[in-house]
Each structure stands twice: as structure tokens, then as C-alpha cells.
Amino acid sequence: MSWRDTTCGALRAGDAGRRVTLAGWADTRRDLGGLVFVDLRDYSGKVQLVIHPESAPEAAATAHEVRNEFVLQAEGEVVLRDPATVNPNIATGEVEIKVDTLRIVSRSTPLPFQLDEENVDETIRLRYRWLDLRTERMQRNLRLSHTIIAAIRRRMDELGFVDLWTPSMTKGTPEGARDFLVPVRLQPGRFFALAQSPQLFKQLSQIGGLDRYYQIATCWRDEDLRADRQFEFRQLDVEMSFVEREDVLDVLEQAVVAAFEALGREAPPRPFTRMSWHEADLRYGSDKPDLRFGLEIQDATEVTRGSQFGVFANAASVRFLVAPRAFSRAELARLEELAKEWGAKGLAYLVHDESGEVRSPIAKFLSEQELAAFASEPGTTVLFAAGDPAAVSRVLGGLRTHLGRELELADTTRNEFLWILDFPLFELDEETGRWTFVHHPFTGVEPGQEHLVETDPGACISQAYDLVWNGVELGSGSIRIHDQELQRAVFRSMGMGEEEARAKFGFLLEALEMGAPPHGGFAMGIERFVMLMAGEPDIRQILAFPKVASGSDPLTGAPTPYPAAALKELGIQSIVPSDQA
Ligand code: ASP
To answer: ∠ at Cα 541 (535, 546), nearest 5°?
Structure first.
């Protein structure tokens, strides 16, 4: 006996007259006293079973017992439905199965929620994820994820990349997050870190002559969970030898396009837009601008130099954006609150109301020339930020993103892929007052600027690049340092002495001393990419078994405390009282 000879979603009018065996879940059951209808569902779709008590009394008796989500096997004939009962909403809606043999293969207890129920609490959905996975949404998302990953793998293979597995248990890799630690029974008191990324292994693979590495790599980072962040996630991780920046960008663009094509969607035109970090910062106040709408930031530093309005006159930078709406006082108060959260002292504005009148507490301080520079259409508001350039960018960039969302400015029919190039190499860590890396410490510096790494770190432009899709950062990469002297200089300018550098990255420095080819690479977050492709608001909807915001897994109950004896074997003693763990 085979469980089935066709699938539920496959049957069409042309199959009428065929005898079939089907297996699947009872999606719904309608018991009309005598006649019973069951919608049978499997991964491929649904089909209606009809069980007539006169012609199939045994099957009818079984059908009365059926409840939602029972697993059934049914045999019968495919028949055309009466035209009045054709269901245009399902692919098999023109037919039904006149069942003569029905078997309950597996029963279900009453369900904690119905599969088609809306607004089910997410923790409940995750607690019973095996049920939730049966929903159309999850089936669609997980299959979409598979199609995307399979297409990317195919393209990487065609391009000559070697799929290389790298260890998860390793030494801390600096990607700017905390490590997850793994204790080691054979060496109590010592720990592996779960790789935040395969960064150093993939660089070593190039020093090892692999030439083109890729991996759909799992990465672990101990950070707070967010809509687009889990403790563990996957990256399309790439590294290549003897390449320039454009070679790496080209590969990533091809991988992205392959995914669009595999889904039968219109691929974004290549090459993707390229923009320097500096330009993105000035025009959009962001290193991941959403280009589906304008609302560009404009500069007013020059025109406000001699302003009667002291806040403008004394600021290193004065910039503004013109929102397409004459905001009310209450709306402006709310925007000011937000601006303050992003570090502004206040929010200066000029409202050009519908009649063309200007409403603004600062208008009286502004000269004719200034007012002319801020002239705008009726029904708009000019919003200003003044201060040091970085703060001004943060405030206006924040406002731009916020207003883009609130006023629904983005043209959602567009897909805007964007490369951000030429990031600074270092930034000042406000806590320690030291220079620290913007991407990671293995990022190359713009050729010709090597001498600035230690003398003027803030002036160094890196060879890093980020990929942005509709305002979401998909990933980043860089041309790496392949010169051990330069690598040491970068460590030094971050305040890392020779000894510390040896202890942390001795193996890399040694490898760089033994014939390292120029190399560069990239990593793109798979879940974020799939989430955007699926049009889902968070990555939990495209993962089979995600964790909730607190960092736990409602399904298994992990993480759980471990008995003291097990910890002892690992050389660990918990200081958390057992009733609090
Ligand atoms: N390892 C980096 C990351 O995970 C990406 C790269 O530089 O290739 O973000």
C-alpha cells in the first residue's frame, strides 16, 4: 500500500473519472447530518472530500469522527462539482473526491488555536510551532526562503565559488557584539566562542589559496533581539582573492538578481546605485537611506552665517528638509520630542500653510535672504537642525525616515538597491575616547592613505561597502588588509599593543606574514533578505523555529538551568540562585 498516489492540490477538472488515493490533514469538516464534507490539505493545497452515507456507509461513520487536523487517508473517484458549488478560491475548486474508503491515520487533541484564526498570540504560535508551520503563510515563507537560498547557491557555484564549512566553535571574532560562550569539559575553565561570523577563517581560506570562498554561514551574536535580529542568523558569506571592490559588488549583485529571477520577479537593474557614505550622510542623514522617496536634506550653513537667530548663526552646520505637509502644532510638538531623542535641543520650523502664510516662531529673526532660501510650496513645513554636523545628520536622518513612514512617502512599487561606499575607517568611541573600527579591524584603508592610519585615523577612508535595500541594511564587506605591517598599525591606532594583538590575533598576523594575496569579501543577511522578499514585518515569520524577544524558545523552553553536577564537570559554578535561574 502506498499512502498516496497524488497530492491534494494537484487535481483539476481534467482528472474527473480518475480513481485516487490521497493523504493529508482534515482542514475543515462540515457534517450535514448525513453527508459529510472534509477539506483535505497537504503541502500542495486542498481538495474537497464528499462522503455519502448511502454509497459508503463505513467511510461515513469514520467521517463523523473526524476533527480538525486529524491525519486521513482517502480513496475515491475525482468527480466534477455541480457548477453552482464550484469554489473559485482554490485551485482544485472545480472537482471533489467521492470517497469510498476513509481511514483515520492519526488523531489530534483539540487545538490550542485554529490554523486560520487571526491575531493568535505569537508566543502561542511559537509554542505550538508544528501547527503554525501548517498555515499557508508559514508554508509559503519557508518555501520562498528555500527557493532564494537554492538560487543563490546555484549562482555561487556557477561563478566558481567553493562552499567551505568553517567552525562554529572558535575564538572570539570581533563584529561588535558579545560572544556566546561554550564551556569545554576537556579543558575546564576554558571557553570557545560561537563565531559572530567566519571573518578570519574566510580570510585564512584566501591566504590558503582557495581563491573563491562562499558559505551560507550561521553566525551567533549575543545582542538584544529585534524584529530583524535573532541570536543566530545566516549570512551569504563570501571571500575572493586578487579582486578589486567592483569584483565583489558584481558577485553580490548577481546573487541578488538570481534570487529575484528564481521567484519570477522583476530583478533590480544592474549595476545597483552607488553612493559614497559622505554623500548619503549629507543628502539623507543616514548610511542606509531609503531611496524610494526624496525628502532630501539641504544645506543652509552659508545662508545662515550672519543670522539674527543665534542658534543658526553659531552652529557649525545648519541643514533642513521640506516635508510635504503643513504640520499642526501638536504634530510639531511630537516631531520635536523625537528630534530631542536623537540629540537635538529643539526643532526650528517654518510652516507654509495652505494659504501660503508662514507660521513660525523664528520667522521674525530671519532676514529676507534667509526666508527666500527657505521659501516653499503652500502645504509644506521646513524642519531645521543646527549643531555639529554628525548630530545634524542624526536628527534630520531620523526625521526623514520617520516622516517617510508616517506620510507613506515611499513608492512601494519600486525596489531601490544601493551600495554605500567609502565609509570612514575609524570612529571615536564616545565611552573610551579611543578610535575604534566602523566595520571590523581587518578592513582595508583607501590606497595612498596607509600613512594616515596612525597619524590621523579620523581622516582615513576605508575600503568597506554596505548593501542597502529600500532603507534596510542587508550586509557589508570590504577589501581587507593583506599587509601585516598595516594590520599592526590598525591595531595600534585602536590602542591595542603588540602583546594584546599577538594574544588575540597572532594567528592572523602570522598568516599575513606568509604570503597573503590581496583579498576582499562580503556578507549578506539571509533572513533580512528573505523577510523583505516575503513582505513580512519581522524575521520570525520566515524562520521555522525562532526565539521570542526575551531570547527564549517557547517551544522547547530553552534556555534551561543545568544541574550543578553538570556545571562542575565544566569547571563552572553558577552565582544565580537556583530559584531565579
Ligand atoms: N564579517 C562581516 C560581517 O559579518 C562581513 C565581511 O566583512 O565580510 O558583517
So the answer is: 150
